[in-house]
Amino acid sequence: VQLQASGGGLVQAGGSLRLSCVASGGTLTNNPMAWFRQAPGTQRDFVASIAWGLGSTDYADSYKGRFTISRDNAKNTVYLQMNSLKPEDSAVYYCAAGPKYGVSGSTEGFYDDWGQGTLVTVSS
């Protein structure tokens, strides 16, 4: 599965962005999905995940109440709605897909396929 992330850009603090991650070369219906982020000079960190099936979600504490992960299986797309953005949210955001019927969560090792990343810059 190839993943293409988009939707990043420059936004003022307090603003919103919606990231999209479209899959090609396969369907995502039964795959766990996630978003991670990496700021310059830091390791890649977990943002949010969504399970296959009932689509239960999980968030890193920093994003609870501000970010929402969702999926549209008919469009083979996963979204990350980001509201109330802060300058510290600035990073490259990566989407990731795990194997079919796999476990979702915050561990990078759960995911096999990664998108190229989309840059989010939040100005103060």
List keywords for this structure.
mainly beta; 124 residues; four-stranded antiparallel β-sheet; globular
Polypeptide structure, described:
- The structure is a single chain.
- The model has no long low-confidence stretch (mean pLDDT 96).
- By secondary structure, the protein is mainly β.
- The chain contains no helices and eleven strands.
- The radius of gyration is 13 Å and the shape is globular.
Low-confidence stretches: none
Mean pLDDT: 96
Q: How many beta-strand runs?
A: 11
Q: Note the beta-strand portion.
A: over 45%
Termini gap: 37 Å
**Cα-atom radius of gyration:** 13 Å
Estimated helix fraction: under 10%
Quick description:
It is built from no helices and 11 strands. It has 124 residues and is mainly beta.
SSE layout and pairings?
Elements (H helix, E strand, L loop, with lengths): L1 E5 L2 E4 L4 E8 L8 E6 L6 E6 L6 E3 L7 E6 L4 E6 L8 E7 L15 E2 L3 E6 L1
Parallel strand pairs: 2-11
Antiparallel strand pairs: 1-3, 3-8, 4-5, 4-9, 5-6, 7-8, 9-10, 9-11
